[in-house]
Design goal:
Blueprint: H1 2-28, E1 31-35, H2 38-58, H3 65-89, H4 99-119, H5 123-151, E2 155-163, E3 169-177, E4 183-191, E5 194-196, E6 200-204, E7 207-213, E8 222-226, E9 229-232, E10 235-238
Length: about 240
């Protein structure tokens, strides 16, 4: 029975920690990680959390040490997972936040908190495990609301790409259209790395090298002087 409960707790933790673990690992390697579909992935995480948490919530017997540790880590893992969705939703060139993604992330946190409340008897332990994640998730609720609201007012689009002479880098001109609020023009550079692993896509980490006003992409010039020097409107920017 202890092995079964540990397995259930491990599956829930793996579902919550998958996106943060992939993102952190990719970042350490100088890459950006993108899920193939954020709403679908968040729904899958929520479904796995519901399915594997049900036996733990129904059981009345004590959890083993491994299961207790994993259960204690669930709220912070769920909160970090939600935080990543919110963070990505505020970045240019990333899918905007939507209701399904935020609702699924909130459900995962709610279930993880319920597991802690159900499976730990000491109030001091519950407080220690839940206080910081609860504060973080309260802030995430507010940020999610404004992220969903503001995300519907605009969009970002790659209007032009320019590979470096040796093909190592790609420069991208981004049109950030915020509707009635105006917008911006960005130039980002990334390493020319694209790896599709199905559920996760890896690409070179974006580096912002130039910011301009809305619509400036229509008249600006962009070209490579050499393999590591980008010319934007005639001005040199060294890429390393």
């Amino acid at each position: 029975m202890d092995r079964g409960k540990t397995a259930y707790a491990a599956w829930i933790f793996a579902a919550a920690a998958f996106f943060p673990a992939v993102t952190i690992t990719a970042s350490l390697c100088g890459l950006d990680a993108e899920l193939f579909n954020y709403p679908i992935c968040s729904l899958i995480t929520a479904l796995l959390t519901i399915v594997f948490s049900a036996p733990l919530l129904r059981s009345r017997s004590e959890l083993g040490k491994a299961a207790r540790l994993l259960t204690a880590l669930l709220p912070i893992a769920s909160a970090v997972n939600w935080m990543l969705y919110v963070s990505l939703g505020t970045q240019e060139n990333s899918p905007p936040l939507n209701f399904v993604t935020c609702l699924s992330a909130a459900a995962c946190f709610g279930i993880s908190a319920a597991l802690v409340i159900k499976r730990f008897s000491k109030p001091s332990v519950k407080a220690l495990v839940l206080v910081i994640p609860c504060i973080l998730c309260f802030l995430l609720l507010i940020l999610s609301f404004f992220g969903i609201l503001l995300g519907s007012f605009g969009k970002t689009e790659v209007v032009r790409t320019e590979p470096s002479p040796n093909g190592r880098y790609i420069a991208e001109i981004i049109d950030d259209d915020q509707g009635a609020l105006g917008g911006n023009t960005f130039v980002n550079v990334r390493r020319n790395i694209n790896v599709d692993l199905g559920i996760v896509k890896l690409s070179g980490k974006l580096k912002n090298v130039w910011n301009g006003g809305y619509g400036e992409f229509n008249d600006m010039t962009l070209e490579w002087k050499d393999d590591e020097t980008l010319l934007i409107n005639g001005r040199e920017y060294t890429i390393k």
